[in-house]
Task: inverse folding
């Protein structure tokens, strides 16, 4: 079994690739480093299902979450991708 597993690994190593931003230490600014950004959207959806909030509140929460994601994407593009590439 060990020989077969080693042969399988040797055959599949040609398909491996480095992940994007390989071996880079990226520190996000405090305004964009919110780990629980999606939690508020999930809480709003749950409250809407229980009748505590309106559908418009869910739409507003999703729009706010998306704008934060757009800002994060823009920051990563300008401060990491354009300066250093992907690390590939």
Result:
């Amino acid at each position: 079994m060990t020989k077969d597993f080693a042969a399988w690994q040797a055959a599949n190593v040609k398909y491996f690739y480095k992940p994007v931003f390989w071996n880079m230490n990226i520190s996000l600014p405090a305004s964009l480093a919110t780990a629980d950004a999606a939690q508020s959207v999930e809480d709003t959806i749950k409250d809407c299902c229980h009748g505590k909030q309106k559908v418009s509140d869910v739409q507003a929460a999703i729009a706010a979450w998306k704008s934060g994601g757009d800002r994060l994407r823009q920051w990563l593009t300008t401060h990491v991708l354009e300066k250093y590439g992907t690390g590939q």
Q: What stands out?
A: The CA atoms of residues 41 and 61 lie 6 Å apart. The mean pLDDT is 84. DSSP finds three helices and no strands in the chain.
